[in-house]
From TrEMBL:
Entry's family note: Belongs to the pterin-4-alpha-carbinolamine dehydratase family.
UniProt entry keywords in alphabetical sequence: Lyase
Pfam family, one: Pterin_4a
Enzyme class name: lyase
Reactions it catalyzes: (4aS,6R)-4a-hydroxy-L-erythro-5,6,7,8-tetrahydrobiopterin = (6R)-L-erythro-6,7-dihydrobiopterin + H2O
An MF annotation (GO) of this entry: 4-alpha-hydroxytetrahydrobiopterin dehydratase activity
Gene3D superfamilies hit by this protein: Transcriptional coactivator/pterin dehydratase
GO biological process: tetrahydrobiopterin biosynthetic process
Keyword Lyase in record: yes
The protein's name in its UniProt record: Putative pterin-4-alpha-carbinolamine dehydratase
Record InterPro entries: PCD_sf (IPR036428), Pterin_deHydtase (IPR001533)
Enzyme Commission (EC) number: 4.2.1.96
């Protein structure tokens, strides 16, 4: 069963609790820069644990020390509370 889509107002309110995320199309996105490649990979490994536990997997792109993330709930067709819950855990690791 798909999670419920959030309203524009709920999305705007949830964004206030996060650091550096923005809405792009039907997702929230953030880019992080680390000191080097290994720090970026370590970060990806840490957030992968949360994603697997939550059964909610982000789009992750890594180029050297830059990690780009996008979250959306594909089976719901947009943003749900699951996206913001995972984004908050990602922010704690960043």
């Amino acid at each position: 069963m798909a999670a419920d889509l959030l309203s524009v107002e709920e999305i705007d309110e949830a964004l206030l609790t996060l650091d550096g995320w923005e809405v792009v199309d039907d997702s929230i996105r953030r880019e992080l820069e680390f000191d080097d490649f290994m720090e970026a990979i370590d970060f990806i490994t840490r957030i992968a644990v949360y994603a697997e536990e939550m059964d909610h997997h982000p789009e992750i792109r890594n180029v050297y020390n830059i990690v780009s993330l996008a979250l959306t709930t594909h089976d719901a067709g947009g943003l749900t509370q699951k996206d913001f819950d995972l984004a908050l855990k990602i922010d704690i690791e960043a």
